[in-house]
Amino acid sequence: MKAVILAAGEGLRCRPLTLTRSKVMLPVANKPIIEHVIDSLAKNGIKDLIIVVGYERERIMDYFEDGIDFGINITYVHQKAQLGTAHAIKQVAELMEEEDETFLVLNGDNVIETSTIKDLLENHKGNATILTARKEHTRGYGVIICDGKKVKKIIEKPTFEISHVVNTGIYMFDQEIFERIEQTPISQMGEYAITDTLQQMIDDGIQVEHVITDSLWRDAIFSWDILKDNSMVLDRYKEHEIKGTVEEGAIIRGNVSIGNNTIIRSGCYIVGPALIGDNCEIAPTVVILPSTTIGDNVTISSFTHIQNSIIMNNTRIGNHSNIANSVIGMNNFIGPYFITEDKENLKIEMEEEIQTADKLGTITGDDNIIGHRVLVKAGAMISSNCNIDSGKIISRNLPENSIVV
Ligand SMILES: CC(=O)N[C@H]1[C@@H](OP(=O)(O)O)O[C@H](CO)[C@@H](O)[C@@H]1O
């Protein structure tokens, strides 16, 4: 059986992190989100995968290549214009062979575990089955009204609460779906939505079923959501290994992974769950607290504290810095005494709506140069390619290529 991963969109609401990579390539537990999906497919015995790519597609294709290193054969299809989920699925029609009676469709930007798709694979019946999950807050999702296994209605992103059963965007379809997609009209949002296709099938009397999962399924809607994804994956992570060097006098507590060629200097205090990649240098007296992931080639200087954060590859952080509840992108050069302020239940304006982040410091994109003694106020985001002079306080979002003097 073939699987199809939809990975063409940018993930606008995850900017500034998605200015340089698509949402599916954002790292969670030191792996792109889409790699968690691919791992789950490979572990469930799926051998053939089609990835629908678009925005920043080279990054995806260069990383996974033909998929052999990831235990699966990958073919790529280019969706030239992002015209919705039904339009994305339609792109793979020509690659389906007669023996592919049914196929699995997944979003590339959702973190899942091996068991998430098991029940769907085992319980698919008829023309279409939707994998659903129960969620307390359903804002931003499609929700489902059902009668037992039978789906009665699928309502895309309702503005009021109707149901706590959400559409995960993971489906089993048979090939009839392609004809159904042809008959799907464009939505008011200007997209061909697979949820409209499914609703039309239901209206035409075709049985659409759902299977509910209790396993991990996390969709990062906003950039700060990857902090929670990261901490949930780290809590479940079982393959901890210390490959690098831990000097005498460094204290490591709980589940901590340390990559090849990484050196943890004497006097460091690291509490897991935490992941540290390859070729990192963690200077004496650095403190790393739970739910932190540090990428490859990262240098952290003395007396710096990091907690519940993601630090991506090739970043340097100066001494006496304090980073909490933050995401710091790739190739950043950050001077000493860099402080991120953080706040709980932070209100952030996005697309003219107020969103709430449970707890957030800063989100910083890639390729920034930040001087010493810079303070970033809670929720302020630094985009990419910015240059910030020493002693500055950043209290609002900085657009790309900003120079703060
Ligand atoms: C039109 C469509 O396919 N909508 C899906 C899809 O929404 P996106 O905004 O495209 O991510 O994925 C959601 C799950 O991530 C699901 O809840 C929703 O119903």
TrEMBL record:
**Keyword list, A-Z:** Nucleotidyltransferase, Transferase
Please give the CDD domains that the UniProt record associates with this protein. NTP_transferase (cd04181)
The protein's superkingdom reads Archaea
- Which segments constitute the Mannose-1-phosphate guanyltransferase C-terminal domain? 270-403
The entry lists its GO molecular-function terms as: glucosamine-1-phosphate N-acetyltransferase activity; UDP-N-acetylglucosamine diphosphorylase activity
In this protein, which residues make up the domain named Nucleotidyl transferase?
Answer: 2-219
The record ties this protein, via PANTHER family, to: BIFUNCTIONAL PROTEIN GLMU, GLUCOSE-1-PHOSPHATE THYMIDYLTRANSFERASE
> Into which family does the record put it?
In the N-terminal section; belongs to the N-acetylglucosamine-1-phosphate uridyltransferase family.
Could you identify this protein by its name?
Bifunctional protein GlmU
Annotated source species: Methanococcoides alaskense
